[in-house]
Amino acid sequence: MSIVTIKDVAARAGVSPKTVSRVINGEAHVRPEVRELVQKVVAELDYRPNAFARSLSSTRSYLLGLFIDDPVSGYAADVQHGALIGCRERSYHLVVEPVDLAAPGWENQVRGSISALRLDGAIVAPPICDEAALMAVFAEAGLPTVLVAPSVAPPTSGTVRMDDRLAAQEMTEYLLGLGHRRIGFVQGPIRHSASARREEGFRRAMEKAAVAVDEACVVRGDFSSRTGMELGEKLLALPDRPTAIFASNDDMALGVLITAMKHGIAVPEKLSVCGFDDAPSSRAAWPQVTTVRQPKAEMAAAAVDILVNPQFRRKAGGEGSHLMLPHELVLRGSTGPI
Amino acid sequence: MSIVTIKDVAARAGVSPKTVSRVINGEAHVRPEVRELVQKVVAELDYRPNAFARSLSSTRSYLLGLFIDDPVSGYAADVQHGALIGCRERSYHLVVEPVDLAAPGWENQVRGSISALRLDGAIVAPPICDEAALMAVFAEAGLPTVLVAPSVAPPTSGTVRMDDRLAAQEMTEYLLGLGHRRIGFVQGPIRHSASARREEGFRRAMEKAAVAVDEACVVRGDFSSRTGMELGEKLLALPDRPTAIFASNDDMALGVLITAMKHGIAVPEKLSVCGFDDAPSSRAAWPQVTTVRQPKAEMAAAAVDILVNPQFRRKAGGEGSHLMLPHELVLRGSTGPI
DNA sequence: CATCAATTTGACATCGATGTCAGACATCGG
DNA sequence: CCGATGTCTGACATCGATGTCAAATTGATG
Predict the structure, then answer these.
(1) Which of A48, A84, A280 is facing B71, going by the closest CB pair?
(2) Quick check: is A335 in a domain?
(3) In this predicted structure, what is the pLDDT of residue A76?
(4) Where is the chain membrane-spanning (chains A, B) (predicted)?
């Protein structure tokens, strides 16, 4: 007999399938000795409930959808990893659904996944978690939704995020603490909502320390290492060049670092460089780049926690659950005292 | 009415549910006009078959499992992306299952996914596709399995891969064609099966061109950019230093490139550098690194194709389907004539 | 000990699709 | 015009679990 069903267990234990079902789902109203017996038989037969039958008859699918834009990015990979771990712990499964907002008919694709798989919830990664049209689809389907690191929190979703502003502020304070006063800042792209918050944190720290920000030292990049190199050239060519450069993400920081090397500017002796995200690129060069660890995996795992929480599920759409996870400065070799 | 079922469609079209089922699944024996009518109604009602009901009654689940070791790596992300696209085209869904071979009980985890979700097939990414114990679990479950870029092809699985040896040979020939004779080679870690094949290709090209390989110019790294930098130092300090360095992967090539910059060795004027994989890191620096594009996404998509192919599925385990996908040299700025 | 409430248990319908099989209908040759 | 063959179509059982509800059992109480 290849596949063990609930009937097999029931027969062997001498009870009804329904009782086995009760034991499996941890419901009340089963005598302790019966419960134990059933559990023993379950273990013996290595019985595993058929997820399909289960979700067909009950209202839950034990399936969460992870909706992402660009599944290839390292960011998405970390988020997914966290979600996967969260699901595993709670015996849920994760279905990854790429969403290409540029493709016509993406809305139907999404609707299709939701209704065909009867998803129990959706985790939405940036940047598409800021897409109103997508949120509308979830809301319309009444699907509990949790956004990871969104820029705004729609009323119909839970959110899990980190404090970009505060983290940038702390990083800046760390640089100031090292004695730096002329600090260059490489902004991220405008459409990325985190960019603004990071810059805000930078400025706030400078202001609090009463250090003037030289606007010539603030330049805008697009999160690519390419612009990091270009803007690095620009900043380092300044007559009174900065002693530290804070880039809004790690790729750009890497670009700055490479440029410094190219010009024989010793890091961190002559120049401190730091980034944001703790992306793989922050470890690609030597010295490795000081950065802010964004708890990507933890955020995703927390999103799973929220989604499987019955209290949250009850309020369709699941407003009201908002979590802010702690970040962490990762101090590495690319920063030092002036 | 929120959820449209097959009965609703049947009622509206004035036929039986079974006929609707036939139309949906593209079965024969339906009069053309009936078929058309049903399709019209399906579209009107925006009907989507419930995947659970479908797989409960039929023997198929329309679900494929992607088994990966480290879901965070860029490699895995590309593979997953390809698999996702392949699934989408064929209205399958993908369930990502991380496998931690270090964790006790991983075998039961895997068995659990297979039997609870009634997976239709497994795609296994490197490096765990070379794990005999894992393969044994799939074989035992009779699950059709396709390995992506394995080092060996077990008799019970299909495989999709690229020709590492040939690609490395072509890259070397390209360098030779540019006039390079002293070519450094950075080997990959021994446990990575592709490493040996890449080195083999390098040596074969050198041999064919009757250029002696200076063993002092052949050094072993571990695929990290860190060792790339260290070994770069070593190679560039050689009395008669190489005019070109071929690293077995892009991270190491990036390390070499950074080291060259640090020493003021112009790339590609004084030194050509190339890597392997077309990883993001190959684009992280400037000039961007010449490399070999490994068709990761295409391999995964091909794996899906094989898995959903009925012919393959019939032979349990699915021996006999082996695909070799074409690679591509990506010529960028880091290589040039001597 | 009878009665009633609370607890435990199982019979049966159900979720939404597909597989099986038999019946209805059309076509064709003799 | 008949029977044989082949093409459509639908009734019904089924997949494997859970929800509902009533029956059986237990325990408490007067």
Answers:
(1) A84
(2) no
(3) 86
(4) none
A-proximal residues of B, 149-208, CB under 8 Å:
none
Contact A88 B78 (CB under 8 A): no
Q: What are the CA-CA distances from residue A276 to residues A70, A204, B166, B223 (Å)?
A: 20, 17, 40, 24
Per the structure, the complete domain to which residue A41 belongs is given by 6-49
B80 touches strand D (CB under 7 A): no
A253 touches strand D (CB under 7 A): no
> CA–C1' span, A318 to D21, in Å?
32
Tell whether B169 and B282 lie within a shared domain. Answer: yes
CB-CB under 8 Å, A254 with B50 = no
Residues A199 and A244 grouped into a single domain: yes
Domain match, A308 and A208 both: no
HSE (CB half, 13 Å, CA atoms) of A12? Answer: 18
Note whether residue B211 is domain-resident.
yes
A276 and A172 in a single domain? The answer is: yes
**Contact call for residues A178 and A244 (beta carbons, < 8 A):** yes
Q: Are A95 and B98 within 8 A, CB to CB?
A: no
Asked whether the predicted pLDDT for residue B1 surpasses 60, the reply is no
Which residues in chain A come in under a pLDDT of 50?
A: 1, 316-318
Per-residue pLDDT of B253-294, as tens digits, reads: 999 999 998 898 999 999 999 999 999 889 888 899 999 999
Q: Looking at beta carbons, which residues of chain B come within 8 Å of A55?
A: 52
- Stronger pLDDT, B170 or B143, i.e. the higher one: B170
Confidence category of residue B318, pLDDT binned at 50, 70, 90: very low
Q: How far apart are CA A11 and CA A25, in angstroms?
A: 18
Give pLDDT, residue B167: 98
Number of separate domains in chain A:
3
**What span, in angstroms and rounded, lies between the C-alpha atoms of A56 and B52?**
6
Structure tokens at B272: 């050509």
Same domain? A183 vs A146: no
Nearest CA to A247 out of A265, A281, A220 is that of A220
- B57 in a structural domain: no
Question: Is B118's pLDDT higher than 90?
Answer: no
Residue A251 maps to which CATH number?
3.40.50.2300
φ/ψ (deg, to 5) at B311:
-60, -40
User: CA distances (Å), B22 to each of A109, A282, B18, B37, B43, in order?
Assistant: 22, 55, 6, 13, 16
B93-106 confidence digits (pLDDT tens)? 888 888 889 989 89
Please tell me if residue B265 touches chain A, with a CB cutoff of 8 Å. no
Looking at the structure, tell me whether residues A99 and A213 fall in a common domain. Answer: no
